[in-house]
Every structure is written in structure tokens, then in C-alpha cells.
């Protein structure tokens, strides 16, 4: 292997070769970028040779060709999009790993428009002076939630942290043991509270907490009662929780104690009317008298990632003035997407315009029609695929309504030459990537989360795979 190490050409020699100019012409890369790629390739080859790897793959004869082939691959990878579109065939509407809520067409158009031009993000056009980004969407949030005031931060975990830090630092915060949840990425309410400087006071038990538990825990050091939405799980059986109305009355009798409810998902649309889950509507929680409520922008709301805080004006004003408000603020593109999302609710068009609501409420006959269309597409390839439509269930996802399973239809696909795991991998590595489920050695495609615009793409991926 030492002779191959000695045969590795110097970088300056490669820079003056025909292949260097060819890459520059074909790929449009700068000399500096091509040089950097060559250096990385030479370092990689030196490493594998020193460690005795790829001994039969690299020879004196093919070494130059190998170097240029690897360099070209690195340059191609450089321009490859790191974040790309995928087709969600899992049936999980708010799939956290796949970006949660899809934006509406109007939201996307508004984001593009605002991103490509200057905007009034922090400028009051009417008065001709500096404005505040906190004011941009506050009126809309007040309208859809019924709160006195509102503000926006970058996600709901940030909202929880800001509220605790700004309003309960060095004070006791009472939380039911049954609500000390852990959300994705091992983020725990107790840990966030510790970081905020608030002092956690646990009351009740995992399955039962009574009003008297809260009453007995209130002291002169109590600054807040926190009620947390139990994302990702639901406790059933011998359970007891305290309703928000009762906690409102308790805090109103306790001077200086704030009642803050972290709703997590935060729905503006009442899914209960469609027979889906028991998720409370933000307006109802506000009307119960809660001081502050926070929720996510990219879950049931159907908008961009954001943490939305609504409630009493005197408290929201304190949050806006806190130094962390600047640290946790959102950018113009988030405001643009959220504006059109909220407008859909205000104008009564949310069910028609927002993909999240459309998918959750998607009629069974529409899903069945899409399944039939896909099956028809694969009819010429019956010698390759076995397909059948079967009844199944979809999930909301994103830690929302974990016990809710929505009836759906899926297409179960098997391939004559691939296992279910191999087939799922093949379509996942296709263009575009299709993410599906596996059950009983079959790949399941749930068309609840596949839009009509994606139907041709899904068909093409399977057709191309049949030709391999």
C-alpha cells in the first residue's frame, strides 16, 4: 500500500490537469471549490490506504480516474438540497419527523413575497417611524382566541420557558405530577422549569390530582399554577384531574398567583364537532378565565413553527418587555405564513385552505377514490406487484390526540422480488422519497396524507421500480 501512497499526485498537479478544467466547465464550480473537493478526496484515499482498506479497489492504473470520479461526486453532493420534499404516505398528519403541518398555498405565496422584498417588519408605515414586530399579528390572534393580548415566539417550548422565566423566576410553580410530561427530544417540563429559575412544586399523584392538592400547596412563595397538556400519551382508568375553571377560581382567591395553561397543540377549530377527539378550543380556555395560554403554530393550528402566547394584557406586556423576548423572536417569514393561516380562520375558510384541517377531515370516499386510482395505475404491473385496498386508521401525530385513530383506507403493496422492508427502502430512496408504513410484511400507503397533486409522483416511483 505504501507505493500507492507515494503515487498520490500533488494538488497543484491536479489543478493544472484537463479534468480540472472539465469539472469547472460542466459543473460551474469555482477553482477554489474544486480544489477543496480534491483535497478532501486525497485525504480520504490516504486514510483508507493507511488503514489497509479498499486494497483491491485502488490500483496504480485506476488511481487518477478514481480521484476524479470521487471529486465529481463530492461536487455534485455539494449542490444537492439538504432539505427536500418527501411524500408522507404514513397517514400521520402532523408527522414531527416530516415537518408537521404543511402550509396553505396562500401562506406559501405570502412567505415568498415577503422573503423576496423589504417589509414593514419593524416599521410603522402610517406613522413613519420604528414599529414593533409584536404588533403585527396581535390583533388577529386576539380575534381568533378572544384573549386580551398576544405575542409570538419561535416554538411552544420557548413560550413555556419565557412565561416561567419572566413571571415565576425564584417563585414556586405548582404542577400536577400527572402533567410532568416529556416531549420529543427528551425535553421535560421539569427540566425547562429548572432552567427558568422557577421552583417546581409537585402535587397529587400520577393518576389523580384534586383541587385540595393545589389549595394545600399554595404558600406566600407561590407565583403560578401551571396546567400542562399531556402530549403523546393519555392516562385512562382510575384518574382525576382538576378542571381549568376550578383552578381559575382558586388563583383569583390567591393574590399574586398566575394561572397558566400550556395547551401544547392549541386548536382554533373545534374537531369535536366532527367527532374527532376531545381537544379543547383555545377560545374556550380563555373564556374560562385562564390568565395565560400557550400553544404551537405548526400543530392543529396548521401554520408554521411558532409558540403563541395569549391572555391578559398586563401579563403579555411584561413578556414583551423581557430580554428573552428578543432572543426567542420569530422572523418575517414565520409572520407571513402565520398571517395567512390566521386569516383562513377569520374568513371562515380554514377547513378548505389549511392542509392540516383538510387531511384530518378528509372524507373516506375521497381517500377510497385515491386508493382506487393508484391501484389502477399499477394494473399493467400485476406480475410485479400485488395490491389491495384495506381498511385501516390514521393518526393526528405531533403529540396531539394520541388516543384518536381516524378511519381510513390504505393500499397494501407487496413486490414479487423484494421483502416489505426492501420495498419500503426502495421507495424511500426514490425521487421523490415516499415514506410509508409496514405491517404484516406489506407496505401500506395511506392516502389521507397524500395530496391529489402527488398522485402521479407516487405512481411514477412504483412504475420505475417495476422496470428495474
Automatic annotation (TrEMBL):
Catalytic function, reaction form: L-seryl-tRNA(Sec) + selenophosphate + H(+) = L-selenocysteinyl-tRNA(Sec) + phosphate
Pfam families the UniProt entry points to: SelA (PF03841)
Domain of life the protein comes from: Bacteria
Keyword Cytoplasm part of the UniProt annotation: yes
Species for this entry: Aquibacillus koreensis
Any one GO molecular function term: L-seryl-tRNA(Sec) selenium transferase activity
Organism taxonomic ancestry: Bacteria, Bacillati, Bacillota, Bacilli, Bacillales
Transmembrane intervals: none
Residues with N6-(pyridoxal phosphate)lysine modification: 299
Protein name (database record): L-seryl-tRNA(Sec) selenium transferase
Chief subcellular location: cytoplasm
Location of the protein in the cell: Cytoplasm
Annotated gene: selA
Family stated for the protein in its record: Belongs to the SelA family.
One Gene Ontology term from the biological process aspect of the record: conversion of seryl-tRNAsec to selenocys-tRNAsec
Amino acid at each position: 500500500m505504501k507505493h500507492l501512497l507515494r503515487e498520490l499526485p500533488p494538488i497543484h498537479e491536479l489543478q493544472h490537469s484537463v479534468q480540472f478544467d472539465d469539472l469547472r466547465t460542466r459543473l460551474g464550480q469555482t477553482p477554489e471549490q474544486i480544489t477543496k473537493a480534491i483535497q478532501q478526496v486525497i485525504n480520504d484515499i490516504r486514510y483508507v490506504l493507511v488503514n489497509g482498506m479498499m486494497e483491491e479497489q485502488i490500483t496504480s492504473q485506476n488511481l487518477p480516474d478514481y480521484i476524479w470520479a470521487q471529486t465529481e461526486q463530492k461536487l455534485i453532493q455539494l449542490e444537492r438540497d439538504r432539505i427536500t420534499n418527501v411524500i408522507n404516505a404514513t397517514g400521520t398528519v402532523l408527522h414531527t419527523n416530516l415537518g408537521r403541518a404543511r402550509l396553505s398555498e396562500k401562506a406559501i405565496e405570502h412567505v415568498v413575497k415577503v422573503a423576496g422584498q423589504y417589509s414593514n417588519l419593524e416599521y410603522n408605515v402610517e406613522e413613519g417611524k420604528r414599529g414593533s414586530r409584536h404588533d403585527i399579528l396581535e390583533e388577529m390572534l386576539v380575534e381568533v382566541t378572544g384573549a386580551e393580548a398576544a405575542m409570538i415566539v419561535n416554538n411552544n417550548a420557548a413560550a413555556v420557558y419565557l412565561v416561567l422565566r419572566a413571571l415565576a423566576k425564584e417563585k414556586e410553580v405548582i404542577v400536577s405530577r400527572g402533567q410532568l410530561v416529556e416531549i420529543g427530544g427528551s425535553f421535560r417540563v421539569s427540566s425547562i422549569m429548572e432552567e427558568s429559575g422557577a421552583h417546581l412544586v409537585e402535587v397529587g399523584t400520577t393518576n389523580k390530582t384534586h383541587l385540595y392538592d393545589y389549595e394545600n400547596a399554595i404558600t406566600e412563595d407561590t407565583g403560578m399554577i401551571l396546567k400542562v397538556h399531556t402530549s403523546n400519551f393519555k392516562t385512562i382508568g382510575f384518574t382525576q384531574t382538576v378542571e381549568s375553571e376550578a383552578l381559575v377560581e382558586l388563583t383569583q382567591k390567591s393574590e399574586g398567583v398566575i394561572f397558566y395553561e400550556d395547551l401544547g397543540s392549541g386548536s382554533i377549530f373545534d374537531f369535536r364537532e366532527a367527532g374527532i377527539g376531545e381537544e379543547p378550543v383555545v377560545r374556550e380556555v380563555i373564556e374560562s378565565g385562564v390568565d395565560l395560554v400557550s400553544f404551537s403554530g405548526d400543530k392543529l393550528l396548521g401554520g408554521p413553527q411558532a409558540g403563541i402566547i395569549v391572555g391578559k394584557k398586563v401579563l403579555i406586556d411584561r413578556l414583551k418587555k423581557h430580554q428573552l423576548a428578543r432572543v426567542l423572536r420569530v422572523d418575517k417569514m414565520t409572520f407571513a405564513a402565520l398571517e395567512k393561516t390566521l386569516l383562513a380562520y377569520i374568513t371562515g375558510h380554514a377547513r378548505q385552505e389549511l392542509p392540516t384541517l383538510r387531511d384530518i377531515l378528509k372524507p373516506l370516499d375521497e381517500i377510497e377514490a385515491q386508493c382506487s386510482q393508484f391501484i389502477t395505475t399499477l394494473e399493467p404491473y400485476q406480475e410485479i406487484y400485488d395490491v389491495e385496498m384495506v381498511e385501516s386508521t390514521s393518526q393526528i401525530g405531533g403529540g396531539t390526540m394520541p388516543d384518536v385513530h381516524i378511519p381510513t383506507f390504505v393500499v397494501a403493496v407487496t413486490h414479487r422480488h423484494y421483502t416489505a422492508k426492501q420495498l419500503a427502502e426502495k421507495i424511500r430512496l426514490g425521487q421523490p422519497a415516499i415514506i410509508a408504513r409496514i405491517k404484516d410484511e406489506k407496505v401500506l400507503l395511506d392516502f389521507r396524507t397524500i395530496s391529489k397533486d402527488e398522485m402521479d409522483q407516487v405512481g411514477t416511483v412504483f412504475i420505475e421500480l417495476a422496470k428495474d
